[in-house]
Amino acid sequence: MTGEDCEDCPCGGDGGPVQPSIYTDRRARMEVQRRDIAKLLATVGGLTAIASLTAPLAGLTQVFERGYNGPVYSDGVHLVDGEGERISEDRLAEGEQLTVFPEPRPGIEDAPTLLVRFPESAYGGGTNMAYTVSGYAAYSKVCTHAGCMVSDREGSTLVCPCHFGKFDPTAGAAVVGGPPGRPLPQLPITLTSDGFLVATGDFEAAVGPGGGE
Ligand code: FES
């Protein structure tokens, strides 16, 4: 599939136990805009109109754009939820997940990250266990195929709704289905002495599409 196929993406909502995030609202607004534009195309018709409006439509398929060249995370940066609250060790039960972000600082506005928690025994090959703590692992939420948010879930499998890319969070977010060409990059995390999750560095690989596909 290609990015153009995203015109049919069900990107409008999170599924399963995913916690609400700023991206949920953003995608919903974008979906409304996309449908409005699609109605306009149907009304106006004609190849000229289609050609002129295709580019903006395609732009809506990529819901994350990194506008910052430096590291997203660095050693000691706290993980926070959509309200900016720091993540304590007891925040998630095993099997749960949450969309988190780097604690805001100049140059960083958005960097969606999937925080998951499983029994440590559930993790197999692929997950860098030195990057996990107390059953927590963190991966970029930006799909490595075309940049949509990996916002759905089937059992323990993380699912991107755009082209149904599937990632196994217990195996280093390895691709287990769909078109993505590489895993979701893992974020090294640890706990502070007062029990909050922080990064110990940046994502192990490039965030989003490209970067080795
Ligand atoms: S953007 Fe295509 S599978 Fe995620």
TrEMBL record:
<dbReference type="GO" id="GO:0046872">
    <property type="term" value="F:metal ion binding"/>
</dbReference>
<dbReference type="Pfam" id="PF00355">
    <property type="entry name" value="Rieske"/>
</dbReference>
<keyword id="KW-0001">2Fe-2S</keyword>
<keyword id="KW-0479">Metal-binding</keyword>
<keyword id="KW-0411">Iron-sulfur</keyword>
<keyword id="KW-1015">Disulfide bond</keyword>
<dbReference type="InterPro" id="IPR017941">
    <property type="entry name" value="Rieske_2Fe-2S"/>
</dbReference>
<dbReference type="InterPro" id="IPR036922">
    <property type="entry name" value="Rieske_2Fe-2S_sf"/>
</dbReference>
<dbReference type="GO" id="GO:0051537">
    <property type="term" value="F:2 iron, 2 sulfur cluster binding"/>
</dbReference>
<keyword id="KW-0408">Iron</keyword>
<feature type="domain" description="Rieske">
    <location>
        <begin position="110"/>
        <end position="198"/>
    </location>
</feature>
<dbReference type="InterPro" id="IPR014349">
    <property type="entry name" value="Rieske_Fe-S_prot"/>
</dbReference>
<protein>
    <submittedName>
        <fullName>Rieske (2Fe-2S) protein</fullName>
    </submittedName>
</protein>
